[in-house]
Amino acid sequence: MSTKTDTAPTAVAKMSRPRPGDVQMAGRRSMDVLVLGAVLVLVLGVLTGCGGSGDTSGDDPTTASESSPAAVDAAALEGETYESTSVEGHDLVEGSTIQVAFEDDTMSVSAGCNTLFGPYAATDGTLAWTEPPASSMMACSPELDEQDRWLTDLFTNGMQGTGEGPTLTLTSGTVTIQLASTSAPPLDTLLGKVWTVVGTIADGATARLPVNTRRPWLTVGGDGLSRLFTGCNSGRTTVRVVDDQIAFGPATVTRGRCQGAARLNEEAVLAVVDDQTTDHVEFNGNVLIVTVGDKGLVFQIR
User: Fold this and answer.
1) pTM score > 0.70 for this model?
2) Relative to the CA of 119, which of 16, 27, 44, 146 has its CA 20 to 30 Å away?
């Protein structure tokens, strides 16, 4: 028995010839795809370039780092006087501030009692005395004595200094001292004060007074009439402020015999205060530095 299988006719696709309009439309689509792809590649390239870490030319100028304060050097500090505005990392004795002054090769530091001074250097921004500093050796309270020792250690070991405009920042370990430049007080405020010699100057070099010697002094009256002690002999002189200099009148002193260090002290004092007019004066309120030629004196003012 045979089985008859019906076979469906195979459908044959009829290939029709494309119309001219269809060809043009397809061409436009292909061209549009190519153009879009090129645009995407260009955009991605630009975005990648902008996001790269190697190109910072497009950085927002508001995020650019500002210049840091410059490390200080001796030339910038010459003739300047600063007073502390804040101290971090140490508590100052109540009512006291730190004053730092620079004159020639001398840095003087005071904080309510004695004045410490000596030759200094500013090396790679670090301020430090180059030899043990001299002190005015005035009697102070125990708290101020301890503060003097703290300052001596700081400036002997050195403090990193940076300056910006009229401000000076000193750091050492956890201690940060902010200081501001101060104007020198008028020279006529020196009248009516006691001037104690704490150092001598010769040929531009500052030296401490020899140990175990009596300190010379001037007790200056408000009218300029002054009592004088040379470290050996006593006497009188006059002090006048002439413009920005100080004029000393002829000194009259006793003629006791002076020997050794006392004689040297007297010679150094009379070379400046006996009928001389200074050619350079530096005064910061606590310390007075005067020179006559290649000789000079450093006074603590009280």
Assistant:
1) no
2) 146
Closest of 152, 159, 156 to residue 175, by C-alpha: 159
Report the alpha-carbon angle 256-258-261, nearest 5.
155
Split at pLDDT 50, 70, 90, the class of 66 is low
CATH number of 149's domain: 2.40.128.270
Judge if 204 and 292 occupy the same domain.
yes
Where does residue 285 rank: exposed (0-12), middle (13-18), buried (19+ CB within 10 A)?
A: middle
Q: Tokens standing for 241? A: 């402020």
Q: How far, in Å, CA of 295 to CA of 280, rounded?
A: 11
The per-residue pLDDT for range 68-121, each reduced to its tens digit, is 788 888 998 988 999 999 999 999 999 999 999 998 788 999 998 888 888 999
